[in-house]
Amino acid sequence: MLVPSHFKEENQEKLQQYIKDYSFGVLVVADSDGIDANHLPFHFSVSASNPLGTLRCHVARVNTVWQRIENGASVLAIFQGPDAYVSPSWYETKAETGRVVPTWNYVAVHAQGKAVIIQEADWLMKHLHQLTDQHESSRENPWSVDDAPSEFTSRLANAIVGIEIQVESLTGKVKASQNHPERNRAGVKAGLAAAGSAREQAMSAFIR
Question: Quick one: pLDDT at residue 155?
Fold first, then answer.
């Protein structure tokens, strides 16, 4: 993606946190057969052996995308944070020059790396536990994979294939009106905060 310098986020820890915060991403696979995109929940972790992080997800066994990865297809994982329409009416400079137009603010992270296919039952069950626990841990009565009968979950696990991506590069773009003067940014921040939707209010927090 095109990332102008004023929108580029180079802080790797921030990018990793965005992936954790907005972990439902798009797995893009490209090879001689074309391009395929799958919308998937990811589990992301960082370790000493790979400080950029490791992404883990799974697809249905009937989804042939895993076979393309096994044959060497390139992969890209895309994560998108808050986004919102920006009205020119929020710019103070509108009254001064009128030379303003609408735009869209958003947060996006692209993760590239080497992917491998994993079909071992132990790995798949551990992955399902990790993926579930990250979303259930904050609930009052968290559900666990172990709450379901083992023969039931084992049968379902046989119908999926795991994908593990060792991240080799992270590219981040935070488009939050940085290319506007402070008085315009203040107007956008206030406008988004008052707009009402959770998405717009979340985007307002990124405007400095």
Answer: 95
Task: Answer whether 108's CB lies under 8 Å from 79's CB.
Answer: yes
Instruction: List % helix, strand, coil for the chain (3-state, nearest 5).
Output: 35, 35, 30
Q: Do 34 and 140 form a contact (C-beta atoms < 8 A)? A: no
Contact between residue 44 and residue 55 where contact means Cβ atoms under 8 Å apart: yes
Q: Which residues contact 189 (CB under 8 A, 6 or more apart)?
A: 177, 204, 207
Pairing assessment for the beta strands 34-41 and 160-175 based on DSSP bridges: unpaired
Q: Residue 47: what are its φ and ψ, rounded to 5°?
A: -140, 170
CA proximity to 165, closest of 116, 109, 128, 118:
116
Query: What value does the mean pLDDT take over residues 134-146?
Result: 93
